[in-house]
Write a structure and sequence with these properties.
The complex is a heterodimer of chains A (194) and B (147).
Chain A: H1 2-6, H2 14-24, H3 27-36, H4 38-49, H5 52-72, H6 78-97, H7 110-118, H8 124-140, H9 143-154, H10 159-166, H11 170-192
Chain B: H1 2-6, H2 12-20, H3 25-37, H4 39-54, H5 58-114, H6 116-134, H7 136-146
Helix pairs in contact in B: 2-4, 3-4
The chains are: A mainly alpha (194), B mainly alpha (147).
């Protein structure tokens, strides 16, 4: 018992803590694991709720939720699972309060995430076709989007450099990129399916 | 291998450095790229940026949250620890008591003989002994008569 408490906690992985919690129900271990990611949960809560006290309460309520959820859920990657729990919790809070959040970015990334996640390995022939399609589709983008995509993905510049180089507002660069990627995806899918 | 390296997710500390303006252009690009591909990183980054813009003392808030979490986790422990101590004390007490009893019994035969309670039970036995010793004598006589 005491040995277990004083064993160096930093050497244990998230999965070690998860397995231990699911076996013993020991809250102390789960607390250590949650504390590792508490800054992430707080930041996510604040992004959605935009209120310090509500975000703090959210952090504590999400801990209560995972105490029960983890008893029934098989979790492979704790951090990304915790993020999903936190985001769903916050969206539910917002829905309950019926507050319209002026954040166009909430669901915006999903199309691109799916695009990234589902892009299968291609053989050389397919890649050539895709590159040709990509070239065509790049030409269909609005000028700001095309320029942002080229500078970010091909020249690997950061937002600040792109803003400096193009004169775009820093806050706009990200949305040009997101919209550019979404349009590229739609265009590429259109070409693939004839 | 290079592919794996490219997919390494930045830690929350690195995201904080990004927000504080402490990363090189190349590192910024890596963080931004990871954020575009991973909603967890994107949400965290946007949260950290929003916190910075609002001017909230995130460090103080996190200290408070960690204390609240510790309090939540310890509540259960406080209930559990006395239970452990109580059961440990009970075991020690039980072992000690049985050891004492065994020791007491091992030392007792001499004491039993001299105790006043046992005197009453030993006297009848002493009386009975002459009687039982006397019995064989008539028996022998009878046997002789029979012969």
């Amino acid at each position: 018992m005491f040995l277990k408490i004083f064993r160096t906690k930093t050497t244990l992985t998230d999965t070690d803590y998860l397995v231990a919690y699911q076996r013993t129900g020991d809250l102390e271990g789960l607390g250590v694991l949650y504390e590792r990611h508490i800054d992430m949960v707080f930041a996510v809560c604040f992004k959605y709720l935009r209120d310090e006290d509500e975000a703090k309460d959210g952090v504590m309520q999400i801990f209560e939720q995972i105490i029960t959820d983890l008893k029934n859920h098989e979790v492979q990657n704790f951090k990304s699972w915790l993020h999903s729990v936190a985001r769903n919790f916050c969206l539910m809070q917002l829905r309950q309060k019926k507050i319209a959040v002026g954040d166009e970015g909430i669901f915006e990334n999903e199309a691109y995430e799916n695009f990234v996640a589902q892009s299968p390995e291609k053989d050389g022939w397919e890649i050539e076709h895709q590159l040709a399609d990509l070239g065509d589709c790049m030409q269909t983008l609005a000028q700001e989007q095309r320029q942002s995509v080229e500078l970010f993905f091909f020249q690997q510049l950061c937002y600040q450099q792109i803003a400096d180089q193009t004169g775009f507002a820093l806050s706009k660069v990200k949305s040009y990129l997101q919209n550019g990627k979404r349009n590229l995806k739609l265009c590429m899918e259109g070409k693939r399916h004839g | 291998m290079d592919k794996q390296k490219r997919h390494n997710h930045p830690t929350t500390d690195q995201l904080r450095q990004y927000v504080a303006g402490g990363l090189s252009h190349e590192e910024q690009h890596q963080v931004e790229k990871a954020a575009l591909q991973n909603p967890q990183i994107d949400d965290t980054l946007e949260g950290l940026i929003a916190l910075k813009e609002t001017g909230i003392d995130t460090e103080a808030t996190l200290v408070e949250l960690r204390q609240r979490l510790l309090g939540r986790v310890e509540k259960k422990d406080k209930r559990l620890f006395p239970f452990y101590y109580a059961s440990a004390a009970a075991v020690v007490l039980a072992v000690g008591l049985s050891w004492w009893l065994v020791k007491e019994q091992a030392e007792s035969p001499a004491a039993v003989a001299t105790s006043s309670v046992n005197k009453e039970t030993t006297e009848p036995i002493e009386e009975a002994a002459p009687l039982s010793a006397a019995v064989p004598i008539p028996q022998k006589k009878v046997l002789k008569h029979l012969k």
